[in-house]
Amino acid sequence: MGWGGRGGFWAPPPPPGPGPSCPAPPSHPQASFSRPPQVRMGEYNEKKETCGTICLKYLLFTFNCCFWLAGLAVMAVGVWTLALKSDYISLLASNTYLATAYILVVAGAVVMVTGVLGCCATFKERRNLLRLYFLLLFVIFVLEVIAGILAYIYYQQLSFELKDNLKNTMVQKYQQPGHEGVTGAVDSLQQKFKCCRSNNSQDWQESTWIQSGEAEGRKFPDSCCKTVVRGCGQRDHASNIYKVEGGCITKLERFIQEHLRIIGAVGLGIACVQIFGMIVTCCLYKSLKLEHY
């Protein structure tokens, strides 16, 4: 028995009961973290582009647009040579002039296709397309250098070729069966450049046509006349016949040399521009390769 109060019995404390449960600690707002989304390896790297890569892409795209226009210009020069300047090809001994024009046409067409391929390779970032693009650039570069070199070589030997060949062509083939192209070329040459004879005053007197009697008394073709009428070549007078120092050789040589300068300048000029395109292509290819890894 225990005592209660001051004078009573003391009572033992009640046994400990289960009591209230401990409250859960408050949740802190920073205690819960959401799990970051899973990113597959390589997914981020494929979309990542450095500033240098972007600049190279747009630089190469701009180059390809200009390159496509340059290809159109090259092909136009080649077609112009074949269509409008080919009247006198039959008067030349070699096919170098004609081959140069064909090379420009082929090179121009390939340049235009290559320009489109270059744009696709640039924005699709396909390294295999870039390799093909670089290879085509190199092939075109070689073709244009060859065209330029041929034009330069032919430019140097043109004078000797004309002196050796033009007189024989005019004397032996003019107005002869099977040589209608030569006849038309000679008539066009003498009328356009206002000249007569290949080199000296006796050239037409040696002509097979004049000596055969088919010329009907003509001393010169009617195309030598300042005013062309049938039979006008029967009268040899300065008021009637073109008399130019050096004959038609000088005129034709100057005409072809001027055109060869255009062909050579176009071919070599665009070839130099292509060097820049090949350098940019290599830089972009290397940049894409580094980002891939």
Automatic annotation (TrEMBL):
Keywords: Cell membrane, Glycoprotein, Lipoprotein, Membrane, Palmitate, Transmembrane, Transmembrane helix, Ubl conjugation
GO cellular component terms listed in the entry, alphabetical order: plasma membrane
Subcellular location: Cell membrane; Membrane
Membrane-related topology note: Multi-pass membrane protein
Residues covered by region (Disordered): 1-38
Listed Gene3D superfamilies: Tetraspanin
Biased composition (Pro residues): 11-28
Main location: membrane
Family, as annotated: Belongs to the tetraspanin (TM4SF) family.
Subunit field text: Interacts with integrins ITGA3:ITGB1, ITGA5:ITGB1, ITGA3:ITGB1 and ITGA6:ITGB4 and with CD9 and CD181. Interacts (via the second extracellular domain) with integrin ITGAV:ITGB3. Interacts with ITGA3; this interaction modulates ITGA3 glycosylation pattern. Interacts with F11R. Interacts with RAC1 and CDC42; these interactions mediate physical association of RAC1 and CDC42 with integrin adhesion receptor complexes.
Protein name per Swiss-Prot or TrEMBL: Tetraspanin
Organism: Monodelphis domestica
Source organism phylogeny: Eukaryota, Metazoa, Chordata, Craniata, Vertebrata
